[in-house]
Amino acid sequence: MQRRxxxxxxxxxxxxxxxxxxxxxxxWDDDLRFxxxxxxxxxxxxxxDGREYFFRSRDAFQAMVAxxxxxxxxxxxxxxxxxxxxxxxxxxxEGRDTLFDIDWQxxxxxxxxMREDVVSIFILPPSMAELExxxxxxxxxxxxxxxxxxxKSEAEISHWAEYDYxxxxxxxxxxxxxxxxxxxxxxxxxxxQPWLSGFVRDLKKEFESR
Length: 210
Prior knowledge:
CATH architecture: 3-Layer(aba) Sandwich
Strand content: 15-25%
CATH superfamily: P-loop containing nucleotide triphosphate hydrolases
Number of strands: 9
Structural class: alpha/beta
Helix content: 40-55%
CATH class: Alpha Beta
Order of helices and strands: EHEEEHEEHEHEHHEHH
Low-confidence stretches: none
Shape: globular
């Protein structure tokens, strides 16, 4: 009675709570895994191939793109990043879900490649003032970086209607509960229960043999 795994896309402007909610979902369900991206940037001290990233040469990465082995890819600050198809498809066939913490552009590429298996969720802040407050209070960025993130957030938020679900993150506990509800319902969709056809067929045989 194994179901088909999901590809779960979580997107939001920086500071809206996406990373925190992702960690909470992972703690809630041990079978939920993060997609490990491939990159052409060199590994940093302590990073391991296949754990933080799949580290590949530019030629190897481009060959993977050309052969359709990447679900999505982009170039960021001179380095290529992407989501390899193989591990994701394997997890899906084993009934395990994969979580993608990516922007709307990467999300669109994945939806085009795996449309029937994708659930996309966009996280909105309750207000722009609250978003700025969260970015400021976490004390990780300079004022210039915060201003740049705020400017970028407007463009990101403009794509909210392209997602299956949209949550306004006013409270982390409430947002986590809603995410759990979404995932629980999506996992029960008929199309994600391939065992049902055989089960109903056996029911019919049992009825006919009475």
